[in-house]
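Sorry to interrupt, but I need a hand with the structure work. Can you supply me with one protein entry, sequence and fold together? No commentary is needed, just the two lines. Leave the record below and I will have a look.
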Amino acid sequence: MRAEDVTDLVIRSRRAVLPEGEGPAAVAVRRGRIAGLHAYDAVLEAAEQVDLGDTALLPGLVDTHVHVNEPGRTHWEGFASATRAAAAGGVTTIVDMPLNSLPPTVDVGALAGKRRAAAGQCLVDVGFWGGAVPGNVKDLRPLHEAGVHGFKCFLSPSGVEEFPPLDVDGLRAAMVEIASFDGLLIVHAEDPGLLAEPAGPGYEEFLDSRPGRSERRAVELVVALAGETGVRAHILHVSSALCLEPLARARREGVRITAETCPHYLTLTAEEVPRGATEFKCCPPIRTSANRERLWRGLADGVLSCVVSDHSPSTPDLKVPDFAAAWGGISSLQLGLAAVWTEASRRGHGLGQVVRWMAANPAALAGLDGKGAIAVGKDADLVAFDPDAGHTVDAAALHHRNPVTPYHGRTLRGVVRATWLRGRAVGDPPGGELLRPSPAGARHPGSERTTEERPSP
């Protein structure tokens, strides 16, 4: 037998979550990829055998919305700490946002700096978004050619001066340019004309200052311009159910637009935010329990296709007990799978649906054809997940850099027991790669566009 034909690893589970459904299987891994899917009790030879029994086997999750902040604000979060937290939460691929680092990723030089900062530190695979800001239309194609997965823009202030928002003319210009090379624009959609300074320090005043109609109006603008320009567009972190109707209508009309939501919008509610607990602050904000239920329906109906973290940490001193003044961002990279599973299982959703929302669809969005599913030829990114075990969150025990999270003290269902990246148990030394999208680019989850295998970095 040739060395390249030797099976390196076989993982067996009675609850393997495959694209065709959940059931018993043995997954054979060779040279970092899934080489075969077999019966659970098949006789297979391998250098290593793992039998998970009734512990579920999932594909590694793909989180396309992570603010790592390195270089420049590494004391907020860095590649080493963020990817360790990701692996502990069953996430084997992250795509880093272009802002909160210094400089932001708005030109090829800044992207190169990001890659230098990440090299040798990452426990999981990492890709990068570029940024679309006023004055950098000329940089968008070079960034695309350099391997970003798409371009993020804001329609309202981002919270950091070095990443300003686009006005309507700037948004249209960016869309025209990105459409010219069939790139992807991802949008923080809040209408600045409907935002206001909070009237007081409490959560109710903060929530009133960022109404759901501000999201809807911004989504309607993006839909109109995407239809006009033909660009592929994706709405980030939908928190308001008012967005669902225009998104569904746009999809029916053939506009190339998708949308995501986040674990905190599906699990937390405005009614439960304690006084002064600014670890719950994010933009757009966590809304009411009735709104949350409508988001779950939008997810089940496919109007929202992805669930990703929007992990946006800061140092504790920026989370002052005043919702008007505190930094807005939720730290949850390690907790997303358990948080979503806790609420999804209560509503009758299975692990297969969670995997579609948190692995397959984000991988499709970012053009990562080798990720997001347990299937022959895919990377052997795998997660042992005990869906019935419970645990109480201790912020100090989490792996992200600063011990701040709104999930502290909350009991969640589901525990990650082990994580493999390309068939190797995640650990030291770091084995993560820096990724680029496939030559065909990202595609919309559920669309009929196909992508080629991603190139090696």
Notes: The longest strand covers residues 382-392.
